[in-house]
């Protein structure tokens, strides 16, 4: 196997590692593919087979050691941007009509919403500031 063949084989290996990446969506295969591309570059510049294998191993392991924990951390985090109904939970509103467990009206984020009290024995009078706990349909549950 001459030098030209070595870099071609490394690129074939990179493509072969890219196929399971697409099929299984396991990013580790992509990291091994990048290692194979790095080894192909070393082979293209005339590096020895031992150096090629070392570059493949070092680049692949380094990517797995660095990128995988970062990806796992990002996967476990909740999105920081809440939109729609999720963005309204936890916000404050002002009571426009008396709100009790049967209903009432509040002004929430510049809009008028129907609302009801989370605590069935509690009523909120006009002008009080309340916290939105949940949104059920078009009704804000407040406390």
UniProtKB/TrEMBL annotation:
Q: What is this protein called?
A: NfeD-like C-terminal domain-containing protein
Subcellular location, in the record's words?
Membrane
Q: InterPro entries in the record, alphabetically?
A: Membrane_assoc_protease (IPR052165), NA-bd_OB-fold (IPR012340), NfeD-like_C (IPR002810)
- GO CC annotations? plasma membrane
Q: Per its UniProt record, what Gene3D superfamilies does this chain match?
A: Nucleic acid-binding proteins
Q: Which UniProt keywords apply?
A: Membrane, Transmembrane, Transmembrane helix
**Membrane topology value:** Multi-pass membrane protein
Membrane-spanning parts: 6-23, 53-71
The NfeD-like C-terminal domain covers 85-142
Answer whether the UniProt record assigns the keyword Transit peptide to this protein. no
One Pfam family hit: NfeD
């Amino acid at each position: 196997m001459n030098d030209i063949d070595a870099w071609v084989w490394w690129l074939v290996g990179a493509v072969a590692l890219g196929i399971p990446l697409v099929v299984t969506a396991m990013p580790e295969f992509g990291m091994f593919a990048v290692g194979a591309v790095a080894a192909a570059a070393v082979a293209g510049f005339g590096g020895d087979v031992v150096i090629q294998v070392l570059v493949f191993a070092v680049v692949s392991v380094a990517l797995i050691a660095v990128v995988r924990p970062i990806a796992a951390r990002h996967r476990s985090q909740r999105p920081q941007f809440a939109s729609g109904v999720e963005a309204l939970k936890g916000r404050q509103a002002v009571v426009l009509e008396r709100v009790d467990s049967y209903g009432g009206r509040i002004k929430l984020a510049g809009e008028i919403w129907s609302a009801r009290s989370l605590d069935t024995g509690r009523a909120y009078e006009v002008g009080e500031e309340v916290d939105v706990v949940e949104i059920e349909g078009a009704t804000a549950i407040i406390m």
